[in-house]
Amino acid sequence: MSGYRLLENASLEGRNTFRVAARASLLADVYHTDALSELLAYPAVQHGPLLLLGAGSNIVFVDEVPGVILSLAMHDIRILVDHDHHAIVRAEAGVLWNDLVHWTLGHRLLGLENLVLIPGTVGAAPIQNIGAYGVEVGEFIEVVEAFDRQTLRACRLNRADCAFGYRDSLFKREPDRWIITAVEFHLPRQRELMIDYAGVPEELAAMGADVPRAAQVAEAIARLRSRKLPNPVVLGNAGSFFKNPVLALNDAEALADQWPGLPVFGASDDTLRKVSAAWLIEQCGLRGYRCGDAAVSEQHALVLVNHGCASGRHVLALAQQVALRVFEHFGVALEPEPRIVGATWQPVTA
Ligand SMILES: Cc1cc2nc3c(=O)[nH]c(=O)nc-3n(C[C@H](O)[C@H](O)[C@H](O)COP(=O)(O)OP(=O)(O)OC[C@H]3O[C@@H](n4cnc5c(N)ncnc54)[C@H](O)[C@@H]3O)c2cc1C
Q1: Which fold has domain 4-72?
Q2: Which of 155, 182, 276, 287 has the smallest set of CB atoms within 10 Å of its CB?
């Protein structure tokens, strides 16, 4: 076995959670890291357009994909360093994120429990520094192992190198440069669990977990997520379509004075605040708004869904309409969270 499989004119419909139709000229599923080095030596792969694809849960295909798509399917997980207080766990890029969360809980390692049930792969987790229920993955990342297409070398980037931010990282800012092959996590054996987040204490109480363990926190969050978000297996979607806008403190306070009820959250530093994109969309009366088969979810205003035959172009057109309506109403510009492939997002401005 060569360690990879090539597919020409490959359908991507089953490889994105929006389930929009698209095709790739060439798709390579890579099963071994050695095979990756071999593939990267081909001139078409080395110099042509290349797109990394994980589980396709944060991507919108608007057009056919030129060049090569690489899908890394290496899926080893192991403990590299085992101390009394913490362990370093290495997971390869193709491991499903939720499998890793449960693996760490099974090994009595803490930190990832609030990130349960986020779709996608380990290799994509650092890209937008996945986060949920008050936790971001970046705080537990020790090293990202990546191939640098600029220098043609394998690198080890530590947490500071990765420049993690809110739904952001070095890798997101340089999408054509990095191929993440594995991630190493520093996970404590003891830590205060993060349970002071919307709905979590109530769910734990309903479960009878008075002094909750990490596995129970994960269970509570999984239950909340299943109720709140449309399941992409049933209804195509990519989770939150827009980031929560980050505003200067004064602007956020002025907006909150003008629009009582607007949820405002802390941001990376004290001079900034995040405001709820879901609330802004909802106030524009857009929850459930439908444009053909592309729609704003009835369940959650931040999620755009595919009711069946929407194309990536329909989804993008809907997203642009939502952003425009929010801008007209509140003067706040929404930015998409997923990667848009084959078109460029048009920022709304005055
Ligand atoms: C129902 C639902 C709920 C969600 N909830 C959350 C949430 O709570 N928090 C959150 O942060 N996200 C959430 N997401 C978004 C998504 O799950 C994450 O962004 C996830 O990390 C994407 O993983 P993926 O493997 O599907 O990546 P893909 O969608 O395949 O790719 C995403 C980006 O990563 C790049 N990429 C993928 N693999 C690699 C690699 N090995 N090397 C370099 N680049 C790579 C791609 O080129 C692309 O730019 C949700 C999505 C859905 C559908």
Answers
A1: 3.30.43
A2: 155
Residue-level pLDDT at 66: 87
Q: Which residues contact 123 (CB under 8 A, 6 or more apart)?
A: 52, 54, 72, 92, 93, 94, 180, 181, 182, 183
| CA nearest to 107, candidates 77, 139, 144, 143 | 77
Indicate the pairing of strand 77-82 with strand 86-92.
antiparallel
pLDDT score of 1 more than 80: no
Catalytic residue among 71, 240, 276, 311: 240
CATH topology of domain 77-188: 3.30.465
- Supply the residue whose CA is at minimum distance from atom 43 of ligand 1: 179
Is the Cβ–Cβ distance between 240 and 131 less than 8 Å? no
Three-class SS state of 73: coil
Residue of 58, 74, 122, 244 to mutate, ligand 1, most atoms within 8 A of C-beta: 58
According to DSSP, residue 245 is labeled P
Q: Which residue spans of the chain are classified as CATH 3.30.43.10? A: 4-72
For the chain, how many residues are written?
Answer: 350
Every domain range in the chain assigned CATH 3.30.465.10: 77-188
- CA 125 to ligand 1: nearest atom: 21
166: nearest Cα among 251, 252, 269, 97:
269
- pTM of structure: 0.96
Fold of 236-341: 3.90.78
Nearest to 263 by CA among 250, 274, 251, 249: 274
The tens digit of pLDDT for each residue in 4-38 reads: 999 999 999 999 999 999 999 999 999 998 899 88
